[in-house]
């Protein structure tokens, strides 16, 4: 067991009624390995305005000490000035907690992770574990993300966990599946897959931020060209600003009561909807590997997704449908071909997804963490 782990991230955290709440995916990830450390210091961004956000859950562990940073970001000249002015303050705050750590875990791409990565080059007598959550394909990254990626490639004194499997991947950059599923999820998922049928109208699901980068506009434009008798329901899970959400709700009026905009939902409700759905739609413009694909796979919900990031490393013709937006075939055509496939063909794809889901369990994650990172 190690004494102290310091996590450096831009994860959303808020404080209300004497309790800290953090983004659910990260809270659950930390729960899976917290017993390996006497103390965990978790540095994240303060989001007081998100006190009612359903994606934030209670940080229950008593050995997690939360340190809040003022959030940075934006592309305006004023935002860039604020970032530059706050960098020295954040640098010394992060440095203070790195001093206490035996192991330092950064979650990139982010400003705090970038600062910690720079420090790592001058303080190599610790275990440095950097997680790069975005796409590892440099050609698709914005400038700052690409800069961080290239810095991590040079950080050979550390271990870097990334999405997918890439040509010429440096030895210290390790392919890691981000955990999101429990053993109980897998057991329940296998039971649901066994009885899931594709011989009637289809229930569709989208999970993510409601904007064009996630392909919500592509989904709605495609559905306008498809026989609606084939569709039972389409669930939109996720949110955006009120203006954008209202825009998409108006664009979906042609679906009548078939379209349901849920906003943010808790994990149990998301899994319930996935268990009832036949297809996950995610024609994103950019991704690393979205956990929602693994969650959908757990319940045999067939992904119809774009070929970005490491998605094609896991989704193939045997377990889903891939849309390459660089070729002439439209997402609408991919959708129609999926709807028109033979029942047994779709059911085979659904069953094959169970194998994929098992890669994304917390048990598998903890095993790899012990053997590959915490040596």
UniProtKB/TrEMBL annotation:
Its EC number is 2.4.-.-. One of its GO terms (molecular function) is glycosyltransferase activity. Pfam families: Glycos_transf_1. Gene3D superfamilies: Glycogen Phosphorylase B. InterPro entries: Glyco_trans_1. The keyword Transmembrane helix applies. CDD domains: GT4_PimA-like (cd03801). Keywords: Glycosyltransferase, Membrane, Transferase, Transmembrane, Transmembrane helix. The chain crosses the membrane at residues 77-95. Residues 194-344 form the Glycosyl transferase family domain. PANTHER family: GLYCOSYLTRANSFERASE (PTHR12526:SF630). This is Glycosyltransferase family 4 protein. It comes from Flavobacterium ponti.
């Amino acid at each position: 067991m190690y004494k102290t782990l310091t996590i450096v991230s831009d994860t959303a955290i808020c404080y209300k009624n004497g309790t800290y709440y953090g983004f659910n995916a990260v809270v659950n990830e930390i729960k899976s390995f917290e017993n390996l450390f006497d103390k965990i210091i978790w540095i994240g961004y303060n989001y007081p305005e998100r006190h009612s956000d359903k994606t934030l859950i209670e940080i229950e562990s008593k050995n997690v000490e939360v340190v809040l940073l003022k959030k940075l970001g934006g592309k305006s000249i004023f935002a860039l000035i604020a970032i530059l002015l706050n960098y020295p303050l954040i640098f010394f705050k992060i440095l203070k907690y790195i001093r206490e750590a035996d192991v330092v875990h950064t979650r990139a791409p982010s400003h705090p992770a970038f600062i910690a990565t720079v420090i790592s080059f001058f303080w190599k007598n610790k275990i440095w574990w950097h997680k790069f959550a975005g796409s590892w394909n440099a050609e698709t990254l914005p400038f700052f993300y690409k800069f961080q990626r290239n810095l991590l490639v040079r950080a050979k004194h550390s271990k870097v966990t990334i999405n997918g499997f890439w040509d010429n991947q440096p030895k210290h950059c390790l392919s890691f599946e981000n955990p999101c599923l429990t053993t109980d999820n897998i057991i329940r998922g296998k039971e649901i897959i066994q009885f899931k049928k594709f011989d009637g109208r289809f229930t569709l699901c989208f999970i993510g931020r409601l904007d064009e980068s996630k392909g919500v506009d592509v989904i709605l434009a495609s559905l306008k060209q498809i026989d609606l008798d084939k569709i039972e329901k389409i669930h939109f899970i996720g949110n955006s600003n009120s203006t954008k959400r209202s825009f998409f709700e108006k664009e979906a009026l042609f679906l009548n009561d078939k379209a349901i905009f849920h906003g943010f939902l808790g994990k149990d409700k998301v899994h319930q909807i996935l268990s009832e759905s036949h297809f996950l739609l995610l024609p994103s413009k950019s991704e690393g590997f979205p956990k929602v694909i693994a969650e959908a796979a757990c319940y045999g919900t067939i992904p119809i997704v774009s070929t970005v990031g490491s998605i094609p490393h896991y989704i193939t013709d045997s377990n889903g449908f891939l849309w390459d937006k660089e070729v002439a075939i439209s997402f609408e055509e991919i959708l129609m071909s999926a709807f028109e496939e033979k029942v047994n063909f779709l059911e085979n794809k659904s069953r094959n997804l169970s194998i994929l889901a098992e890669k994304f369990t917390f048990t598998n994650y903890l095993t790899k963490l012990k053997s590959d990172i915490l040596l």
